[in-house]
């Protein structure tokens, strides 16, 4: 699990623990704990409000909904698999440069 966390942080542009903790401390990176049983409900709600929000807020709501859905999907995959090599039902995170 730690390796997957490192992989995600690296793909987001954070090289190592110190960079991640610094970003959290500066408010650049925000950690949100969402109970598993509420994740799908949260993602649906964010997609609903997206259309009613200003474009910037709507885009942020979409990104957060994508992240919540990714968290749900990752629960079904072994920790050893490289994130961008997984066949995720909703597609890859935006930082995985996949082309068909």
Number of domains: 2
Reported for the largest beta sheet, the result is:
none
Average pLDDT figure: 78
What is the radius of gyration?
Answer: 14 Å
Low-confidence parts: none
> What is the succession of H and E elements?
HHHH
User: How would you sum up the global shape?
Assistant: globular
Number of helices, where a helix is a run of at least 4 consecutive DSSP H or I residues: 4
Structural class based on helices, strands and sheet pairing: mainly alpha
Helix content: 40-55%
Write down how many β-strands occur, each being a DSSP E stretch of 2 or more residues.
0
> Ends: how far apart?
28 Å
What is the quaternary state of this protein?
single chain
The share of residues in extended strands comes to: under 5%
Short description:
This protein is mainly α and 100 residues long. Helix content is 54%, strand content 0%.
What does the secondary structure layout of this molecule look like, with pairings?
Layout lengths: L1 H10 L5 H9 L10 H15 L4 H20 L26
Structural account:
This protein is mainly alpha-helical. The chain folds into two domains: 1-31, no CATH class; 33-84. Helices cover 54% and strands 0% of the residues. It has helices at residues 2-11, 17-25, 36-50, 55-74. The longest helix is centred in the middle third of the chain and has 20 residues, at 55-74.
